[in-house]
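Consider the following assembly input.
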Amino acid sequence: MTSRPELTGHASLFYNQKEARKYHSSSRMIGVQREITERAMELLRLDPNTPALILDVGCGSGLSGQILEENGHVWLGCDVSRDMLTVANNTAKQQSQQPPKEESMQQDDSDDEEEEEEEEGASTGDLMHHDMGTGLPFRPATFDACISISALQWLCYSNSKNQNPKKRLLRFFSSLYTVLKRGGRAVLQFYPETADQAVLISETATKVGFAGGVVVDYPNSAKAKKHYLVLSFDRSSTQQQQQQQRPLTTGMHEQQQQQHVTVGSTMEGANNKKKKAPKKKKGVKTKEWIVHKKAMQRKKGKDVRPDTKYTARRRPHKF
Amino acid sequence: MRLLTHNFLQSNVKGTEKGYPLGIERGAELSVESSPVNRNLVLKMLNKVDYSALVSITNNLREERQEDIPELPPSLPETLEEETIANYHKVLFDVQLVNGFLVCPDTGRKFPVKDGIPNMILHEDEI
Ligand SMILES: C[S@@+](CC[C@H](N)C(=O)[O-])C[C@H]1O[C@@H](n2cnc3c(N)ncnc32)[C@H](O)[C@@H]1O
């Protein structure tokens, strides 16, 4: 196991000038961050034809932001490491010094944009030096979406006596809840060191009111495994949405590899990793849950079948 | 930092009531670029900005840089001419705060901006 940078102290000390340059010029890193960011974008499910305003938390040297930009979005990146931001800033400057190409952004239609590797004149990103653990400093309901790539786990560590991870996570999520537009989503990819960290993170997100859960891609590969916390405001449709967010797997033994951890039951999912205990089958609901759900629907004036002894009874055959 | 970003910022230092909009201290170093107008983005962003805050910060900055910064209509017009859109683009995307200070309207706490990047870091005892 390689040692974790989070254990070495404050993020701005680890991501210093030297590390920031190294990070930004490593083609391996660029490739990995691109892949994760693209997956996060997929989970965000933005309308590809409408530019959105996206917050990138722990934006670092701008590798993740670059992908937001390529997709035509306006983004704002925050990071606690000034050295990472300086690298991001220099890249943006170089970009804007290149003479803008003949066809301006205005005439681009989104189909062509995909193939265009070359950067356009102006960058659509902006940067801010900020520690997410102190709460995001924006007006309410500002952002259409939020992404965070490989940064959130830093909040689980304390770098000084007065840094309390629980408090910092709570501040972060409650401010995220405020600054995100209703109906918006946040996708935060992170590297939990332990199962407990994943639980703490997702439980804090639910505590402040978010709906959602953790999607684990490639759960059986130590290297490729990735955790995505997918958050939204829509508690009612979460169940259904989550079914659609199928984790990526490497193909073989699909059933076994899939892992979907819902906020609140994360612990159970996390333990599965070790023990490989039989997982709860997807879509099996308890009777209480169904009765409750039906009552809610009735309240809303919907036509719902009455509760009977057959309610929630298992069917003998799957169909 | 763009004026677009400025429009979204809110100070959350202990003791703030609204924390918005942040002032820009006089004498700040600005740069005014000219990037290609992206109509779509401008319209989308105009939907999001607090318009009166945008006009008032633009008017403040115009006191020092009148020739580079276009004047904005006091209220958002119903129909937008291409030229007006270009002006909005200029104000939202091209006017950049390079060095200076942002000021919390309630507490007076200053946030330094260096090389275009605002420092919004708060100390634990300021929260
Ligand atoms: C692995 S880098 C990822 C950077 C970028 N998202 C990417 O995909 O390339 C993690 C970043 O998280 C930032 N970070 C760590 N703790 C943070 C905090 N409390 N607030 C904001 N950023 C933080 C670090 O400074 C670092 O730039």
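The pocket of S-adenosylmethionine is lined by residues A 11, 15, 33, 58-60, 63-64, 78-81, 84, 131-133, 149-151, 154 (CB under 6 Å). Ask yourself how this observation constrains the way the partners meet.
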